[in-house]
Design goal:
The chain has helices spanning about 15-25, 45-50, 75-85, 85-105, 115-125, 150-165, 195-200, 220-230, 260-270, 280-285, 300-310, 320-330, 335-340, 345-350, 355-360, 360-380, and strands at about 1-10, 30-40, 55-60, 110, 130-135, 170-175, 185-190, 210, 235-240, 245-250, 255, 270-275, 290-295, 315. It is α/β, with parallel strands linked by helices. It holds the Pfam family Glyco_trans_1_3.
Length: about 375
């Protein structure tokens, strides 16, 4: 089949998932004909992704969250205003996505949680079948446990997730553990998409702490902690465009630009891992048996962190308290059931791309799922 990827390009998570899925699909004889990446002008696509994906990459402007002035937490009000002002540009992006689906003659569009893909299918109804894949689709599962957060924000998160999947034939929800399929949402739970480079690594127990900062403003917290603990070696990755490949504060603290092989090298030898709770890197650290400190910056990451903690990944905090991480590393034991779950990813995910099932069974299944879903929704309001 001819397959087109459309990726939400904030952070590294969906990008590395796309690299992994392409490896699996090409191995089965499918052709990935192109990659569209939604991003903001403030972000740049990591060089490792452009080097490794192996097909033409077409960026387009897409909605995104704005950080606060210190580049740490998400500024929700500013983000809404910013994205409303840029609405005309996003409409052009929707037309661009639709045109690329036609020009590439794609049989299937794989949507990695990009909002504008859902809008494209709502406005233009392309002929190509759409499969959505991301961990966020697990938020639509009735058995998913949410943290004690603002109910309105959780409802908005679930609504946003549904918007990304308008017109989808199925949703593949990446999960830390096995969960049942949920037909009314067209939801199929599958293992995380880890690349062969991760699966082939033999981890070792080093003496340094390692981390990833989605928002580089958190580097201030790392530097402050380092001043109080100058003996502890630290390696952190960030996305600060103005810095060189390696910004060395001193012999014990370095900040690195995103590089996939270097990232995995440092992760595999680390004592423990600190992150802003993106799903993909948490999965990588869990697979390699590293204890994790998760510092979520917005509601989605808070849900990821809570779910990961329930799965034995580590602890959740409001700041980069590396003292707690160091203490955790002394008696942490890895989750072997998670490793077994990850190793089932190939056949569980590739099964959903079988042409005989995708083009013959899914339309009818999808119709039944949508009908069941809407009947259930109407039932909440009818006096029956």
């Amino acid at each position: 089949m001819r397959i087109l990827f459309v990726i939400q390009g904030e952070g590294r998570g969906h990008l590395t998932q796309a690299l992994s899925l392409r490896q699996k699909l090409v191995g089965e004889g499918h052709e990935v004909v192109g990659v569209l990446v939604g991003k903001s002008p403030a972000r740049r696509l990591p060089a490792f992704f452009l080097d490794k994906i192996g097909v033409p990459v077409y960026p387009f402007e897409s909605p995104n969250f704005l950080p606060t002035a210190k580049n740490k937490q998400v500024n929700l009000v500013a983000s809404i205003v910013y994205n409303l002002v840029r609405l005309p540009k996003y409409l052009l992006s929707v037309r661009f996505i639709n045109r690329m689906i036609r020009e590439t003659e794609a049989d299937v569009v794989v949507n990695f949680y990009e909002l504008l893909t859902g809008f494209t299918y709502f406005l233009f109804r392309p002929k190509a079948l759409m499969i959505c894949i991301a961990h966020q689709y697990l938020f639509l599962h009735p058995d998913f446990k949410f943290p004690d957060e603002n109910r309105l924000e959780l409802a908005m998160l679930r609504f946003f997730t549904r918007l990304t999947a308008i017109g989808a034939a199925k949703k593949l929800a990446l999960s830390f553990r096995k969960m049942r399929e949920y037909g009314p949402e067209g939801l199929i739970v599958v293992p995380p998409l880890l690349r062969h480079e991760v699966l082939d690594i033999k981890p070792k127990q080093g003496e340094y702490l390692f981390g990833y900062l989605l928002n580089s403003g958190f580097s201030e917290e790392i530097i402050d902690w380092h001043r109080a603990h100058p003996e502890q070696e630290l390696h952190f990755f960030w996305d600060r465009k103005t810095e060189t490949a390696e910004f060395k504060v001193d012999e014990r603290l370095s900040f690195h630009q995103l590089d996939d092989l270097l990232f995995l090298y440092y992760m595999s030898g680390a004592k423990a891992y600190a992150t802003t709770a993106g799903f993909e890197s948490v999965c990588e650290a869990m697979y390699l048996g590293k204890p994790i400190l998760m510092v979520p910056t917005h509601i989605e990451q808070a849900c990821n962190a809570y779910d990961a903690a329930l799965s034995g990944a580590g602890i959740v905090a409001d700041c980069f308290d590396l003292d707690r991480l160091s203490e955790l590393s002394k008696n942490h034991s890895g989750n072997m059931s998670f490793r077994h779950w990850v190793k089932q990813a190939d056949w569980l995910i590739l099964r959903e791309f079988r042409p005989d099932l995708l083009f013959h069974e899914l339309p009818a299944v999808g119709l039944r799922r949508h009908a069941t879903n809407w009947v259930a929704r109407l039932g909440r309001f009818l006096p029956i």
